[in-house]
Design goal:
The chain has helices at about 5-15, 45-60; strands spanning about 20-25, 35-40. By secondary structure, it is an alpha+beta fold. The relative contact order is 0.13.
Length: about 80
């Protein structure tokens, strides 16, 4: 995402929401890597709650039995 577009999006989100989490990823590179970025604005605890809720929803949609034990989990680095 271009920096100008990213700033405009973040400014618009900040006007309308008490907290948001923005996760973006680039296309897969030739060597199989993907650049992923996350940013948030607002209370850090609320942002963590949003992420946890999203993880639970993904788990519901994809079902734990369809993949290995950690394929759909959020990984912290």
């Amino acid at each position: 995402m271009k920096r100008r577009d990213e700033k405009r999006l973040k400014d618009e989100l900040a006007k309308k929401h008490a907290c948001y989490v923005l996760i973006t990823c680039d296309q897969l590179s030739d060597n199989g890597e993907m650049q992923v970025e996350m940013s948030y604005q607002g209370d850090a605890t609320l942002a963590a709650y949003i992420l946890q809720g999203a993880q639970l929803r993904l788990d519901e949609l994809h079902g734990e039995e369809e993949c290995s034990s950690d394929c759909s989990k959020i990984h912290y680095f």
